[in-house]
Amino acid sequence: DGGITQSPKYLFRKEGQNVTLSCEQNLNHDAMYWYRQDPGQGLRLIYYSQIVNDFQKGDIAEGYSVSREKKESFPLTVTSAQKNPTAFYLCASRRGRGLSGTGELFFGEGSRLTVL
Amino acid sequence: SQELEQSPQSLIVQEGKNLTINCTSSKTLYGLYWYKQKYGEGLIFLMMLQKGGEEKSHEKITAKLDEKKQQSSLHITASQPSHAGIYLCGADVISGGYQKVTFGTGTKLQVIP
Questions:
Q1: What is the spatial distance between Cα A37 and Cα B70, in angstroms, rounded to a whole number?
Q2: How far apart are the CA of B80 and the nearest CA of chain A, in angstroms?
Q3: pLDDT at A109 over 80
């Protein structure tokens, strides 16, 4: 079955450590996205990528980094520069690229990061 | 930048009652998406609206996009406990030649049996 896989589901880290969250999709989607969700709030866009080897900053990119070396993979690194990294992180993908083609986002199950 | 305002922020209804959630944009909506989320889980796609005046239904949930394409509503008829969760609206935003999707703050729905 096609879908998006995020790992790990739960992650605990000490303050000051970098953490990488994995996101893999086998839907053959061009565009991929990372969102952050805090309790009682909606989703805020961190980074997004329309094609391989290209990505754009979202609304809250500071303290995060990404790479898009393969179409199916879009890992997110939460660096020590992120002041408040404890949150629920969601990865998504969709068909289409650029201004052409729209469609709904397909989401993974999320990764919950807790910094101690 | 595109901002999506959802109202109400939370809602508690008795099972069997109807309810409406609104999503308002400061700019014209080119693609409007409704999702449902159970706490701590991923988002489940409900419906997508693109044309002014468009209306779609799935089971007991109906979503509409107004003619001006700046407001959408989600209506649930005869609510059930299975409808409980967080409802989020999202919209396509074009910025600098790139296309992204931004979301509203969400509406938390509780349905009391």
A1: 24
A2: 22
A3: yes
